[in-house]
Amino acid sequence: MQIIIQLFLLVLGFLLLIKGADKFVEGSSKIADKFHIPQLVIGLTIVAFGTSAPEAAVSITAALNKNADIAISNVLGSNIFNILVIIGITSIILPLTIQKSTLKFELPYVILTTLVLLLLGLDGTLGIVDGIILWVMFIIFFIYLIRLSKSGSAQMDDVPEASANDKIPILLLITVLGMAAIIIGSDITVDSATKIAEILGMSPRFIGLTIVAFGTSLPELITSITAAKKGKDDIAVGNIVGSNLFNILFVLSTTALITPVPFAKSFIIDAIVAIFAAVLLLLCVIRDRKVGKNGGIIMIISYVAYFAYLVFLK
Fold first, then answer.
1. Using CA atoms, how far apart are residues 20 and 29, in angstroms rounded to an integer?
2. Which residue in 36, 39, 52, 191 has its CB near the most CB atoms, within 10 A?
3. Could you tell me the sign of the dihedral formed by the alpha carbons of 138, 274, 192, 131, in that order?
């Protein structure tokens, strides 16, 4: 009975995280639009941060609760899941194209940032200095995005626009409620995930790398599938790569600046798998900038093998 209650709470936490992020993006984007902030800036900040809000909230909450295993495994698990499962499944259904900018800079930058994270974690802790290093890399990435967007080379997701019927007090209420849902949802998610791990005799790392990673990756999954259905398959891949960068450079860096995050030796394997996933995607698209069915199958097989490894060592 206890496990059923905790699973229900976990699902409730995910729903609050996802809907909260959605409403936060909607409300804050429309407020920014009301004040005539350019759509480009809104897309690069509010919308981009919004899709990583679940990972950020869960990781920061977990770290503050001294549950570093979920804080780090959530990010690494999400990054692995994003590439091997989301891109893998989508590309089996529909070949995915990747933008030149994603191939030349963003994907190699994912590999670099994950490698840097691994090296920073070898001493056993992600501290303030490590957080600063990752934040500097994040600023470099953000400057790159601004230049790319101004040049017209980047395609943006749909940015919510305010209408005459949208009133600022209502939008403020939506934004505040969205943020509240994110905070409450993250607390419920971390608490229930920890208790599920205890009940099932599994490590918080295993739960974080699988169940929590899947739940916090749902916004990316929905966004990518929607983009692919609209024929914007290059945006679908760009979303995943961009999200992976945000997860490491914004989520973990911010978490490390707030509180030291222990980096267990077991995470070395997970970081290597995350690097492998990004390298595999790079190899799949390096010839014709497309991820086809064969590449998707290899990704799914790779994730199944990784999941089997997790189950074996849980």
1. 14
2. 52
3. negative
pLDDT recorded at residue 167:
86
The label of the residue with tokens 């919004």 reads: 50
C-beta atoms surrounding 287 within 10 Å: 7
| Residues with pLDDT less than 50, the chain | none
Among 229, 196, 222, 225, residue whose Cα is nearest residue 211: 196
Pairing of strands 96-97, 290-291: antiparallel
Question: How far is it, in rounded angstroms, from Cα 296 to Cα 162?
Answer: 39
The DSSP letter of residue 201 is T
Question: Cβ of 204: how many Cβ atoms within 10 Å?
Answer: 22
**pLDDT score for 178:** 87
pLDDT at 158: 58
Helix axes 233-246, 218-229, angle to 10 degrees: 160
Q: What is the pLDDT of residue 224?
A: 72
Tokens of 100: 């030149």
Determine the pLDDT at residue 153: 57
Q: How many CB atoms lie within 10 A of CB 124?
A: 9
Strand partners, 96: 291
User: CA 131, CA 115: separation in Å to the nearest integer?
Assistant: 15
